Amino acid sequence: MSGPVAHVRSLPDPPDTARALLFDCDGTLVDTMGLHRRVWSDLLGVHGFVVSDPWWERHANDPMEPFVRAAVPDADGALIERLRVAGNDGFVARLGELEAVDHVVDHARRMHGTRPLVVVSGGFREPVVGSLRAVGIVDLFDDVITADDVAEGKPAPDGYLLALSRLGLQPAEVVVYEDSDVGFASALAAGITEIVDIRQA
Fold first, then answer.
1. Superfamily of domain 20-32+99-197
2. pTM: predicted TM-score of the whole model, two decimal places
């Protein structure tokens, strides 16, 4: 007697007008959020803060300064920078715990070579590139844009605007793949309206 058949998730083919595909990293290509939460639970716990499910849901995608101050309201700039460095270092040290988001990576592999693929992440370069390398997909992408490349991270549009500039394309000529409201807001602010919510696929 055969067992249940697993449902295979897949993303739709992009429209013919799409000349490039832009992918978020954390939570979209790589299942990083669990590791980020474990690292930050340890770091913020030193300051007496317990990372609850509702708090994480609300703040996990915040830029660094409001993220830290949501847990440690009196944090000054020096402490925020120390925590940022410690968070990056702690995450990079545990990259072996990461797994790919299979249905999105399968889509990226299928699209590889058909048009440029670019990562546009709100994270910093070392953990983003390290995450892509850890799950064996860094070579799928023609460019990787991170918070280190722009003045403001998501939800500001800077990362997506930089991707469009480097590609020489208009907003209507790209498709974005995202998993968070912050990411959607960033893409929309850049004038991009073709956005795939990978959580719904």
1. HAD superfamily/HAD-like (3.40.50.1000)
2. 0.84
